[in-house]
């Protein structure tokens, strides 16, 4: 009976060692879950960014309004017979 008890305690010790210090240990598993959560959050941001870019591409392909807006903002282009005003000044002050 004592031999059987020692064998069971030995097996329990081996299992505990594997749980805490083995190849797929518990602390490593917790760390991997945290890394997965961080990666999934990063992926969600990238998916959202890709969706915005897809919508912009569709908008650019479908009409000229987005193309005009982009040319005005990024290239400073103006239409023929159009007056362009550039306002230069300090920061805006809120109305009291």
- The total of helices stands at 3
Tell me, rounded to a whole number, the average pLDDT: 86
N-to-C span: 90 Å
Morphology call:
rod-shaped
Q: What's the gyration radius in Å?
A: 32 Å
How much of the polypeptide forms β-strand, as a percent range?
A: under 5%
Question: Major beta sheet, specifics?
Answer: none
Low-confidence stretches: none
Structural class: mainly alpha
Series of secondary-structure elements, N-terminal to C-terminal: HHH
Can you give the helix content as a percent range? over 70%
Query: Got a strand count?
Result: 0
Tell me what you see in this structure.
The chain has 96 residues and is mainly α. It has helices at residues 2-21, 26-62, 65-75. The radius of gyration is 32 Å and the shape is rod-shaped. It starts with a helix and ends in a 21-residue tail after the last helix.
Give a short overview.
The protein is built from 3 helices and no strands.
Q: Can you give keywords for this protein?
A:
mainly alpha; 96 residues; 3 helices; rod-shaped
Task: Walk me through the topology.
Layout: H1 2-21, H2 26-62, H3 65-75
């Amino acid at each position: 009976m004592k031999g059987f008890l020692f064998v069971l305690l030995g097996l329990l010790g081996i299992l505990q060692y594997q749980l805490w210090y083995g190849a797929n240990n518990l602390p490593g598993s917790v760390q991997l879950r945290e890394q997965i959560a961080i990666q999934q959050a990063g992926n969600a941001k990238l998916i959202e960014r890709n969706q915005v870019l897809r919508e912009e591409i569709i908008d650019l392909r479908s009409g000229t309004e987005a193309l005009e807006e982009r040319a005005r903002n990024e290239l400073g282009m103006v239409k023929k017979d159009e007056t362009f005003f550039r306002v230069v000044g300090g920061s805006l002050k809120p109305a009291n």
